[in-house]
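Work package 3, deliverable 3.1, input record:
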Amino acid sequence: MAATQALFSSYELEFFAEDETISIVPNFTLPGCSDNTLECIGGAYGPFLPNRPVDVPLWMAMALHQRKKCRILPPAWMDIESLKMVEELERDRSDAFQPLPFHYLEIAHMLFTHAKDTFGGNFYKVHDLVESVRKVRMTKIHSGLKSLAGPMTVKLNNLSAMECNLMRGLFQGALDRFWKLAQLQAAPDAGEFETQATSSPPSGPRRQFRT
Amino acid sequence: MESQSLGVPDLDTQADDAPQLQSDLARIKQAYVNEKVAPEILEYDEELVDRLRQRLADQEDKVQGLDAHWSVELERSMYQLELERLRYLLASYIRTRLKKVQLYAMLCLEEASPGEDGAAPTHPRLSRQEMQFVQEFFMDMGMHMKENILKNLPPGFDQLVRQSNADPTKDTMPAPDLDRHVFCRVLEDRGTVELDQQGLETANFEAGDLYVVRYKAVQDLLKDKWISLT
């Protein structure tokens, strides 16, 4: 199994993440547009007025920021207090992942790389917190992998896009193989597999990470 | 080269669907991700692709018609950026499908039902253009193999069809592995779902849940849009 090769590249995941909504404070108007609003295919964004916060997709925020046309407001989940809480809960509850945006790693990475000023003086604090949240979650995923022991369906609520993509090969490889082995065991004569004791899932049918 | 072989969209299928403005982007994105993750070729979303193509063309016209004045430069670049993003998504969707079509070309042809009165054969999940592509692809591939390999083999071994028919399970025909495990997200509450034929293993699918599950077990749920792949 190609465990090392991810299905999506990290660039592609960033591309997907760029459709997430984020608030910006523009410093311009759009005289050419009616109502200072951009009529895009994905929806209408605006009105863009100086010092009036407005919600736009991340790609637009990054593009405007690059042109020095706006200030990006840090998303609520990247607040220091809430990140601290998430980190704590993430450590305390070994059986569950905390709800974070599906693309939290990509969003964080893009903001940290291209829009540092979003966080002002808190940049390093936020950066470190996100990093430690990521590490705690990664450790949990790895210990979760250890618990795979036979053909089963795994529930991984709140796992993020990047984490799914990273772990895909390992999960897939292990589970595919377990399933095949179970099939062989259930039907040694290669016929239709029928209800046989050996084909039933092992004692713990699903590892529940729970919500 | 690949996307060109799909020809021009049917312009007359354009519908008045203003309320769906927001979701077309989400839909093509999901269609692409589903296609990429699923082992088999999924049903072609002709309606979505045609509408999106039309919408892209309309938007391009709009951007073309914008003033050349510097004050609209910002506006123009935003529109253009979005256009490029959507074009990429659309192309990726089609490209991912074509990759699978090439991989499972023989299976596609096998599954296709012959058209009536000499019409082109149709396939339940492929578009007309994809079907045409797979036929041409198979012919070219077959010719190439014949020229370079089969021709040099001793008589008796030099026919692909004969080799293929030798085994009742058609083991020379690549087929997707439907027992592969996939990451899927539950879109709507579905309640208890049976995950194997015996009904020994079940799971409670609630909206927002994320599962790693055998593709075959959720194949029908995906078709009916209860779940999406991730």
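Chain A has six helices and six strands.
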